Amino acid sequence: MQCEGWRRYGGIMTFGPVKWEQCKENATAMLKVDQEKVEDLPACPICWKEVIENKITILGVTPL
């Protein structure tokens, strides 16, 4: 299962237009997060760390 994380490239203070790309890593866990709505999303360890760093509320974690 592919990770559902997205990364932004370009835009302010960089050259080129804003471009969003989906993470290409395999998911290792399902994160239940609360970002305007509660949803379960597959995440790799890198994106999981970004969720924590961005202070997004994690309501639960289920390993895959």
Order of strands across the biggest sheet? 4-3-5
Net shape: globular
Helix content: 10-25%
Tell me what portion of residues adopts beta-strand conformation. Answer: over 45%
Mean pLDDT: 93
Provide an overview of this structure.
The structure is a single chain. Helices cover 14% and strands 45% of the residues. By secondary structure, it is mostly beta strands. The protein has one domain (6-63). The strands form two sheets. It has a three-stranded antiparallel β-sheet. A two-stranded antiparallel sheet has the order 1-2. It is globular. It starts with 5 loop residues before the first strand and ends with a strand. The model has no long low-confidence stretch (mean pLDDT 93).
Structure summarized in a few sentences:
This protein has 64 residues and is mainly beta.
Topology summary:
Blueprint: E1 6-9, E2 19-22, E3 29-35, E4 37-43, H1 45-53, E5 57-63
Antiparallel strand pairs: 1-2, 3-4, 3-5
Keywords:
64 residues; mainly beta; two-stranded antiparallel sheet; 1 helix; 5 strands; globular
